[in-house]
Amino acid sequence: MAGFDVKNWDVREDCEVRQILDRVADKWSLLVIALLDQRRLRFTELRREIDGISQRMLSRTLRHLERDGLVKRTVHPVVPPRVDYELTPLGASLHSTIKALVTWTEEHQPQIAAARTDYDVRVAAETGSDTGAEATGVEATGAGAPARSG
């Protein structure tokens, strides 16, 4: 790909590309963007839809996404106040990229699960332990990954 330089993903704190990648790739941002692609939602609706997110983390995530221009926050002048969140055109364009990544993951999940199993078996044989997970400190298969006989 012309113009693609992995060095732009620098890990320095002041690297803006890294900061943006960190923001848009974190699990809460991905879920918020995916949910807002479907429709405009209120804070309480988002919190109800995202299992495990605290009120503080959702507020923080929404604030960051709004600052980055991915989410629009609309305050309605009613009592009690009503606040809606929706994707901006920039956020909607990011959602299509996220969707492609999720599609790739779903299509290749069996291959990745098989590779994990093969790796764990190989490491277990090399170290003499029962599972490679013990030797590597990782799960033998990912959450929801099918076990492979073999």
State the main characteristics.
150 residues; disordered C terminus; mainly alpha
Question: Are there runs of 5+ residues with pLDDT below 50, and where?
Answer: 140-150
- Taken as a percent bin, the fraction of beta residues is 5-15%
Rg calculated over all Cα atoms: 20 Å
Helix content range: 55-70%
SS elements, strand count: 3
Mass-distribution shape = elongated
Give an account of the 3D structure:
It is a single chain. The longest helix has 39 residues. The C terminus is likely disordered. It is built from six helices and three strands; from the N terminus they run ααβααββαα. Strands 1-3-2 form a three-stranded antiparallel beta sheet. Helix 2 packs across helix 5. By secondary structure, the chain is mainly α.
Question: Which SSEs are present, and which pair or pack?
Answer:
Elements: H1 16-25, H2 27-38, E1 41-42, H3 43-49, H4 55-67, E2 71-76, E3 82-87, H5 89-127, H6 132-136
Antiparallel strand pairs: 1-3, 2-3
Compact overview of the structure:
The chain has 150 residues and is mainly alpha-helical. It is 57% helix and 9% strand.
